[in-house]
Amino acid sequence: MAKCLVAQSGGPTSVINATVAGVVKANQLNPVYDTVLGGLHGIEGILDELFVDLTHMSEDENRVLRQSPSSALGSCRYKLKRENKADFEKLFAILEKHDIRTMFYTGGNDSMDTVAALDEYAKANGIEGFQFVGCPKTVDNDLMVMDHAPGFASAAKFIATTAYQTWMDSTVYTRQDVFILETMGRDAGWLAASACVSGIVDMVVLPEVPFDKEAFLATVKKHVDAKNKCYIVVSEGVRYEDGTYLAAGESKNDTFGHAVLGGSGHALREMILEAGVSERAKVQDLSNAQRSHASEQSKVDVEESFKLGMSAHMRSIDPSFTGQTVYVKRIEGETYDVEFLATASSNIANHVRHFPTEWILPEYAGITQEAHDYFAPLLVGQPEIMRDEKGLPRQVKPYYMR
Predict the structure, then answer these.
(1) Fewer Cβ in 10 A, N or C end of the chain?
(2) What's residue 262's pLDDT?
(3) CA gap 109, 142 in Å, rounded
């Protein structure tokens, strides 16, 4: 039997490690491969032949891995460009050298493009005997085809919880005050919208609706005049009608060519203060906390992420299963349930799944009941968190630090 390789790429989530744990556990139960290797730092590390053997992972470590935040194998934002033949030639030579026949790649949009690109190259050059399988994740929930991406539900649960708790804190004083919570979401407003589950959000500002400064300020004033307070949630990727970002002055590009954002909350704060709408305005930027707060995992999310890894492993038994991404589909019915299906990775790569505009209420007033119904089952439950002697959640030591 040959070896398989599992690696991670892009921004981490609090359940991305559960997918790796699922691949490892599935091979222990059904040893399709004699060795399960972990690739350190994604494609970038694979090109440097940085591997760790995960085959005989203990049950305890597997369980701790599922509750560990971030990417335990390390991540990268290395763009595998189709015109760079040298990278492809080197990568296939490394796979051949180490007898790696199947590669599971866990990541978001660009990672699924990597899966598609590797499969395309193999077919175009008559290279046989290799499989490339996508295992999706993203807190942004902006991947096409699937009902939701692993990682989103836990981030949404953390955001809704944080919104509720910071709202409680922001209302203790009688003074006039506006509280602004900034979430991730470069192109899609799923995360910001999820804060509305808390039931306390007065206004939500999403990328799907072009920002109207005058309408925004008028609505803030309406809330402040009525109750001396206003709780606002804003996505980092909010844009004006002409497409420029609300915080465009600070945006740069990451190595995938995406804008690196942050600052939309402070941009709103300055608008509010300059317009004299409120005497005070405070900003809470959730930054990396929303994707790494693993002790706020959704039980549904971590279990689905684990099962997705197992499903990907099972499907790889079929040697023709390559260039595919395994995903979650919600089954229609009175009770929440899902199934795991597969689609060509090219159907996911280089596309963005936006928060439905029909789920957005006018005047920044929140989201519809249909949106609430979509979110509700995803946030249910919390796994039992194993803790150390200090009372802190147990975490695996990152494999790239060993």
Answers:
(1) C
(2) 59
(3) 8
Nearest to residue 154, comparing CAs of 144, 166, 162? 162
Residues 6+ apart with CB under 8 A from 39: 5, 6, 7, 45, 46, 50, 51, 73, 103
Sorting pLDDT into bands at 50, 70 and 90, what band is 258?
Answer: very low
One-letter amino acid for residue 347 of the chain: N
Alpha carbon distance 248, 299 (integer Å): 36
Cβ partners under 8 Å of residue 10, min gap 6: 42, 75, 77, 107, 108, 109, 110, 111, 137, 138, 256
- C-alpha span between 84 and 52 (Å, rounded): 27
Q: How does residue 293 score in pLDDT terms, banded at 50, 70 and 90?
A: confident
- pLDDT value, residue 261: 55
Q: Where are the beta strands (DSSP E) in 251-385?
A: 252-253, 259-260, 281-285, 324-330, 338-344
Residues known to be catalytic: 140
Residue 244 CB partners (closer than 8 Å, separation 6+): none
In the 8-state DSSP scheme, what is residue 379?
Answer: G
How far apart (Å, rounded) are the C-alpha atoms in residues 352 and 383?
A: 30
H or E segment to which residue 53 belongs: strand 51-53
